[in-house]
Structure prediction request, 1209 residues.
Amino acid sequence: MPKDHGIGASPKRREDVRFLTGKGQYTDDINLHGQTYVHFLRSDVAHGIIKSIDTSAAENMPGVVRIFTGADFEGVGGLPCGWQITDRHGQPMQEPGHPVLARGKVRHVGDPIAAIIAETKEQARDAAEAIELDIEELPAVVDMVSALAPDAPKVHDELTSNLCYDWGFVEENKAAVDEAFEKAAHVTTLELINNRLVANPMEPRVAVGDYNQANDESTLYTTSQNPHVIRLLMGAFVLGIPEHKLRVVAPDVGGGFGTKIFHYAEEAFVTFASRQIRRPVKWTSTRSEAFMSDAHGRDHKTKIELALDADNNFMAIRTDTYANMGAYLSTFAPSVPTWLHGTLMAGNYKTPLIYVNVKAVFTNTVPVDAYRGAGRPEATFQLERLVDKAARELGVDPIALRRQNFITQFPYATPVAVEYDTGDYIATMDRMEEIMDLSGFEARRKASEAKGKWRGLGVNCYIEACGIAPSNLVGQLGARAGLYDAATVRVNATGSISVMVGAHSHGQGHETTFPQVIAEMIGIDESQVDIVHGDSSKIPFGMGTYGSRSLAVCGSAMVRAAEKVIRKAKKIAAHLLEASEADIELKDGKFSVAGTDKECAWGDVTLAAYVPHNYPLEDIEPGLEETAFYDPANFTYPSGAYACEVEVDPETGKVTIEKFAAADDFGNVVNPMIVEGQVHGGIAQGIGQALLEAAVYDENGQLQSASYMDYAMPRADDVPFYIVDHSCCTPCTHNPLGVKGCGEAGAIGSPPAVVNAVIDALASGGKNVPHIDMPLTPHRVWKAINQ
Amino acid sequence: MYAFDVTRPKTVAEAVAALSGDEAQALGGGQTLIPTLKQRLAAPATLVSLSAIDEMKGVCADGGTLTIGGGTTHATVAAEASAYPALAALAANIGDPAVRSRGTIGGSLANNDPSACYPSAALASGATIVTNNREIAADDYFQGLFTTALNEGEIITAVKFPVPEKANYQKFVQPASRFSLVGVFVAKYADGVRVAVTGASENGVFRWKEAEAALSANFSADAVEGLTASADGLINDLHGDAEYRAHLIKVMTKRAVAAAK
Amino acid sequence: MTKVTMTVNGKSVSGEVEGRTLLVDFLRDAQRLTGTHVGCDTSQCGACTVHVDGLQVKSCTMFALEADGATVTTIEGMGNADGTMSALQASFQEHHGLQCGFCTPGMIMAASSLLKVNPKPTEAEIRHHLEGNICRCTGYHNIVKAIMAASGQDVSAIAAE
Prediction:
């Protein structure tokens, strides 16, 4: 019988009512008295020298308040990078400056050159056209491999080359890995591209800066996944505003998927400019602007090899990857192809030797950073495509080959520096075979054939690492931030509770799920608990929401804070009930004395805490409010097995997804409805990557897929109903809820399943095609069939 | 968008008068023009909205001819052009429901986007484009990419479609925009078959005459089997090269013939 | 500037607009009806979908002047008269048909327009009707399910109930 409340129940989301009735409060819905509008004049060339900017005519245009250029930011910091990578030779990565407005050079189409503030949006845009700009165009660096040629033009003149870093992991293993390949009975090699994507949350970014002269305080309203991170980065590194004079508010945010983690130039600009002009400054991105200013995702070019022994056991894996950084280092960009990618290369398999090489490259393209999965989809895709290719080459069943090489003993220390605490890969594979009805596949294949379609089945496994931690370890790895989170549980006098959390909800449903946990711990109704998030002036310093971390990290902080509250409440109850604290039990919102019928209600204790008339003031402070910071001991490791069935129309190359199943192990689940929704959305994004989406630059650095006219977003008729299951459960061993994280799994686990299925479909049509690069558009599939 | 005025005449005569003004431009349903204006790729002084002109709206079947007012929306054609089912089906699949509520046949034909659906129907049907001062045969009307026989200020008031014995439109969509990557309209008349292709050519909609000849002799998918559409002059872009488009022309033609009714 | 008057969610409203003022800007800025959202500038995403004279339109692709005299319904006007959510809105909540909520108003407007003409749509008909409404969060699964359920169809057999 499913639970109807607390942990494990699926109460309907309370945030839905405002969203369904048009009462959500997104950043663009905020309009302040005296507000001005900024329009950014952006570079339309990928690479060039700014010879001159003449704003004089524009300044006299109607409604113009002020125009800023890079020169106005002398002495102002650049946008910081939050992670430093140390290369194979022990040297720090090359880290160029990232100005708020371009100075000297423009380095990608969309690089902001000038900012025009006017009374209306259209006036600002009119004035932008009156700015006289002289840019000497330079050859653009677009392709990663040629960017590293000795004579390649340099994106940043002050660097020695376009190489950000050459990272080897684990460098000490390299010789042993190479030796294993020498001895291998079989080597499978695959070269592939992990296509560049644009995250495309449906809400474009917005920033409103508001300077209050009365108290010298600046407020930034922004579409962010992590307001405290923005406050720290912008205050300390860019604008030099101390935290107590800076408030960052991220209200309702319309999706993030990673691209709203980062600190962007526009946020710093509106905050800076508002202080200068003493009026609020608002920027609302258009979608076209988003394509050239939101950090992109993925964009890896990889060669991966697998060495197998004569019994098909995996002996070693070796990879060689080029990772695009774009023109500047976005906030967490260097960590994505390294610590979020190399550490996952073991996947679900007990491969004893692994070596990962990553060359991160600067190009004249939009910066690339974390997008749903961030490094882990890239690792999973190459590994799971490779295993499938190996199975085809060896003529063995791809599921059997996977099962044979599964890690089965936990904890398991991989050769790539992480320790999986728990998991059961056989169980998720079994479950996937069941829910997918794999035994019926051959009949379905025949039915498709009868219609003139080729049907294929693709499977894959994945392992994810969520809740990146602990802080002292990631500090050694180059992180310039802590990776804990924080929560304050404030119990009010009448017993209701406000929980201030560092996590930020932009679709994840925290307002519903977090109260489920508190309600379960105390035994009160969920409606008694409210979550406060998104406002740095209200919440403790937490790191926000990304990397599927909210419940595992911030939820754990909340549990710790609630435990402190309960300990104190029990002391108060012991006083009220004239009993020993050790005998006090809390159940169903009532305190009782063990073995007696003496009890008092939750509300009696909370009232006593705030009206402490009958209260042990000599022993306990009044009030009932506790904060906890939680720094996890390890990552969590969700895992699963996915399967996809496609039909290929051999005449046109069009692929349709006929069936998709996901069997995940997320550990304990607080709200199954929400977890399933997260998986659905992730799968759709993975199908999007596999079949539809690609950010494509031409050789001049012009983005060819710069709007929804050319960047194919998955639509309702591109996807099927998904079969999702999370009944396999190996709880996380090191956090109090035993939870793992579910936000990215779908996006990580689905692309290889789709591609493997298409390759299988082509094989069933008699076309043995080793690989097709994503997205598998009809054109590409048709070419593969007819090559 | 740049600043401009919008006028809403109630009659064709008023609209024609308004369009004689400086930098005046007609606004049909706006489903293509408004996004263009947002990009500041056009700077009219006045937009003359045709949406309030009732005399340009409606679908009327008379004998073997279906006449559609130039201001008739795709949704209305989809619902009311039952005399020409292939045309109604084409209209029912243009864009999405919101686009079909506003977009008009006159607007689509006047714009002559190389990937739009309607030009293929007009050309394959040998339709007559009726304007405020003349009638233009479809064969003379389409003159290349975004180019038509319309003079400045001329308005499409109606389109007359001879209803064929059988017809069908097959659209293979570009996955992002959902416009046609290749669309083929096949119409069979007593005096022969016409095949018009949209989405594929750098010069906009065109007739595939070889297929017409083959299908006029033998109206079956097999008749097209031995033909090859030429890739010369076809569009090469992110979503497909010329060779692929040429291949799709044949596939879509066969499917249209097989599905024609 | 030209004066326009229209009925929005049952109330007559008027305001001065420029020729280039889009209906969505009139609704959001002048009428403070911020439930209608703007998610793109190429008329693809459908977050701005409203009803004009009963028809589903993208309010970012129509000038306010063209709605002079029209009857406009936005997400704010979709609830029951007593202030509760309509059956369709409630079904979206019941079946978790939304996550970040940004595309949701457009989805509700599109779905209600479908149900008006097709009271029991099939899965394929729903997916086809939503061609002009992009959601990045839900993978559409629960949106389609919510619409089927709102039309009185049994959705218990749909995968992963």
Notes: The first helix of chain A runs from residue 16 to 20. Chain A has a mean pLDDT of 97. The radius of gyration of chain A is 27 Å. Residues 27-138+202-255+260-293 of chain A form a domain with the Aldehyde Oxidoreductase; domain 3 fold (CATH 3.90.1170.50).
